[in-house]
Amino acid sequence: MMRLLMALTGAVAALLVACGGSSGGDGNEPIALLQTEVDDGFERPREVPDFRFPRDHGAHPGFQSEWWYVTGNLTGEGRSFGYQLTIFRFGLAPEGPVAAGSWATRQLWLAQLAVTDLGGDQFLTAERISRGALDLAGARDDRLAVHVEDFVIEATDSGLESVQLRALDRGFGIDLQLSAVKPIVRQGNQGLSAKGPTPGNASYYYSVPRWETTGSVRVGDRDHDVTGLSWFDREWSTSALEGNQSGWDWFALHLDDGTDLMYYGLREESGGFGPYSAGVLVAADGAVRKLSATDLAAHPLDWWESPVTGRTYPIAWRLEGTDLALEVRAKYAAQEHRGRFHYWEGAVDVTGTRDGRPVAGSGYLEMTGYQ
Amino acid sequence: MTSLLRLRGLSTRRHFASHRGQLWLAVLGVAIGVAAVVAVDLARISVRASFQASLDAAVGGATHRIVGGEAGIPQSRYVELRRKLGWIPMAPTVDAQVVGPDGLPWTLLGVDLLREEAVARSGGRWRGIDGFPIDRWFAGDDLVLAPEGLPLPPEPTLTIDGRAFPVEIAAAYPVSGPPARVLLADIGTAQRWLGREGHLDSVLVVADELAEDALNRTLGGDLRLVRENTESAGLSRAFELNLMALSLLTALVGIFIVYNTFSFLVLQRKPVYALEFALGASPGARTRGVLLEALALGVLGTGIGIVLGLVLGQVTLSLVSQTVSDLYYDPGDAQVILAPLTAIKALLVGLAGCLVAGWAASRSVSSASQRISQRVGIIASLALVAGLFLLVVPGPLLTGLAGVFATSLGYALLGGPFLALLSEPLIRRIPVAAFPFVGLGARRVPRSLDRTLPAVAALTLAVATVCGVGLMIESFRTSVSDWLDQSLSADYYLAADDGVVSRADIDRLRALPEVEGMSRFNLRTAYVGDTAIDLAVQDLTDEGWNSYQLLDGDSSVWARFDREPVGLVTESLARLENLGLGERIAVKIDDRSLELTIAGVIRDYRTGPGRVLMSWKQYSALAGAPEPTSIGLYLAPQADGEAVERVAATLLAERSDYRFASTGEIRARSLEIFDETFRLTRVMQWIAAVVALVGLTGALLALQLERRRELVLLEALGLTAAEQRRCVRIEAFLLGGVIAVFAMPLGILLAWSLTAVINPRAFGWRLELIWAPFPVVLALGIAVFGAWIAGLAASSQVGEAAS
């Protein structure tokens, strides 16, 4: 889904380049990045797309930004983990000639890895940033294969049935194999996901809602064999948020009856989710039901204040729809990213009812724009 | 008591009002001492800050550096590293010296801004700046980042290898200290300007043990991980220690002067103290009074001294910067920085020195003076013995410097009493009847020596420094000059900075009838253990063999040189790595390791960790024939070099990385650099001498006051004021002479310590002490002439003192 929807102008990209890690001062607010001006030379998603795979698993440099986003919950050897591996591409300028030489590029790439170690009460993060040159970072066109240095998301063939994730930082990392249980889901209108009333203010967006996951998670010098479920989002755009939007909350939940729910709320400054909030409910058999802003209500239940940034995030929610009543609660409160961007994204537990029957599950929650 | 205090205040004011000259002399004494300390310290701290800034700009927080073979690191290897060990902070670098728009040398660093935060170089601390053309930066436009605080035109031109590159300043990066002359460009852009596409000069790394292990397992081939910066840090420490020693020496001379000044002031007012005593003031009250005056004088003198020191600091700083840039690195525009510690030192020398000196001077009026001089004698003897011990026993540089300091201090302090003892029998032989004034003046000398101990010590130190440091510089210069004469055996040298001298060019030069012989050199970075060294592979002519001075080993080495896998190591490398004859060393180069037996230790005055010399033939047998990176040309007897120079000029026009010079040019430039290097040392000598002479003047003035009664007696005997003045001048002249002679052994000892102890410990090379007459004559001249001037000043007080 929209996740860190970053429409980067030169100044914002400069911040991205220069402010890294914990030394980067206050970090950047993702929402601020969305409300900046965009170079007119970039393409914008206006039409319903005609996705062509595997080509569309690769990069779209005509658009300003895009991402490959995998999140999941894993257990094994008596320990539970959440993980997130995300790769972003940012176009510094619309494609055009660059100077001779292998380092010259108009593309910057960023990868973020997070592991929530629930047994060890720790939230571990790492980043890679690189230019889209020299094979330091980039994506292939003939299959899903994208990397920033040694952080890699890679399919074994042209489909998404079998994918590998490899990202190892100092003292923690993941090495996972993913197998698709459900086919690709096109978000919005056949993959055109509008974010506001302004034409072109949208993204091209598809997901793989359920990937069975096996592999290992390393924490310290120990590798833990794990299994679990993952969610994959693919999105590219040049869009900016509307001026009255202050942030978003995104849920991707796997329920134990085989249902998968994705819902994002675009928060407005006046409070509450705006009319372009949307989602999707994918049944166990793969049947897809679109959710609009009015189909689901979300209420914060519990808050957590970051002792480092002082920001307060709602880490427990109640989601209510016609046939759905779920309570979503963070598995670990301190899952706040404090690298180049400050936001909260982490593993959650789910309990509640679906069609009157009790359900449970797990998933991921992303929250931006909180102070 | 209050009325006594008022009386004292009144008397002090009156005294200084009627003796303004003395007041200013006292203030000047304190001020000069403080100024010298401040100036040297400022230069030291400023250079250190700019050294840090340069280091910061070039290396940042990197602990290691990955280096490659002759052509650097293929960038594909760097990409492999990032794709395998992305968690290790590293930053790729190409760097080169370029000429900036100001005509000065600048370092051009090619960096990947995305990797700069990993190693925290100062340029990498650049933050997002509005309007920074980030897209153009990464697209490879001709952009640079310049340091804040160094004004440059917005679109300057850089000269690289003789070619002009117009560039644009994209933004300024912030610097925390004095800005270093370092420009940043994108790595791809820098490679393009420098013609080094596809290769990196090095990759800086921040590595702990874990990362080090991981890298060592992964590197291989001709890539190596080496510790960053140990060499320059070591050199910088050595240099800083030298400066600190000079600063301490100056402080010592300064403190002597302060003491001297107070002895003078206290003695001058002895009658006033007697009066006060009669009126009921205790000796404690007198001491307190003197301390108050000392404090006032100290404040005034220290204030003036700090200002004077700041001015002087500019001069010393420019000299130090010159030395630093010639020997170590380009410090950019170092700025004078008044650090709190310098201010504290100045206060310590000025105020604390004044208070202690005032207290000691006040005590010396009483009968305790005998005990004080006895104690000084004991301390001085101990210092002398301890100093000599530290010099003789092998140890680190610091103990060597402590040895020099203690020996000098001990010897100088012993001077007064010792000279008095020695000179007395000699002086007694002067027939007073034949030379009444000389005799009279001379007879005063032994007693004067004893009574003016601090001034004698200061002058002894200064004279010995002039002589010792002078001898050391002369020895050093002669050694370097001899070494250059011997090393530069060819008539011309042609070197390629960025590659090899091409076969075609060699053939062209060789074809000239004037060229009788040629030697080939291949110079490259190699490693002995973790130490980066220069490996010089040489193919010498018969004449070339004589170009090395063997410090260890015998001439049979030349017979073995081409036949066996032997290497010659420079003295500094032998010392650094503790290598001796017959030992085997593994010289790692590219992906090879050459096992060599050390067959000799050779003299070498280059800075750096040293070099290993091996034969062209042996290297070819072990690792394949090398390409020459430079060649030496030997002309036929009586041949004219013009034809060679003409051909060289055409070659230079074709290859911008070629450098061509005659032996004479290289020699002249080397000695020029040498002389630049010692400019500061020479200036410091003069400062010490001036400070000491001010001290001596003060001491002689004090003596005249002490001798009021004597003068009255002389007057009664019929000596006119003019004749008395003559006596004083003769006395001063002889005093200077005696001190000068006494200072000579210390000077020679100093010269020996510097050449045989300090230099080997600091730089790894030993110098031959050469007996040059000039420094000795200069030192003697300064002492005698200076004493005569001091005598003139003191004699002008005679009339006043006698009245």
Secondary structure category of chain B: alpha+beta
| SSE order of chain A | HHEEEEEEEEEEEEEEEEEEEEEEE
Classify the helix fraction of chain A into a percent range.
Answer: under 10%
Largest sheet of chain A: 13 strands, antiparallel
Overall average residue pLDDT of chain B: 77
> Strand arrangement, largest sheet of chain B?
9-4-3-11-1-12
Please provide the count of β strands of chain B.
Answer: 22
How many strands of chain A? 23
Most extensive chain-chain interface: A-B, 42 and 39 residues
Termini separation of chain A? 22 Å
Beta-strand level of the residues of chain B, as a percent range? 15-25%
Largest sheet of chain B: 6 strands, mixed
Radius of gyration of chain A over alpha carbons?
Answer: 19 Å
Total helical segments of chain A:
2
**Low-confidence residue ranges of chain A:** 1-27, 29-36
Oligomer: heterodimer
Structural class label of chain A: mainly beta
What would you say this structure looks like, in words?
The complex is a heterodimer of chains A (371) and B (803). Chain A has two helices and 23 strands. Chain A has 371 residues and is mainly β. In chain A, a hairpin with a 2-residue loop joins strand 12 (202-219) and strand 13. Chain A is globular and about 60 Å long. Residues 1-27 and 29-36 of chain A have low confidence and may be disordered. In chain B, helix 12 crosses helix 13. The A-B interface holds A 10-11, 13-15, 17-21, 23-24, 92-93, 96-106, 108, 126, 128-131, 133-136, 147, 149-151, 168-170 and B 75-76, 79, 82-88, 112-114, 117, 120, 126-135, 138-141, 186-189, 191-192, 197-198, 210-211.
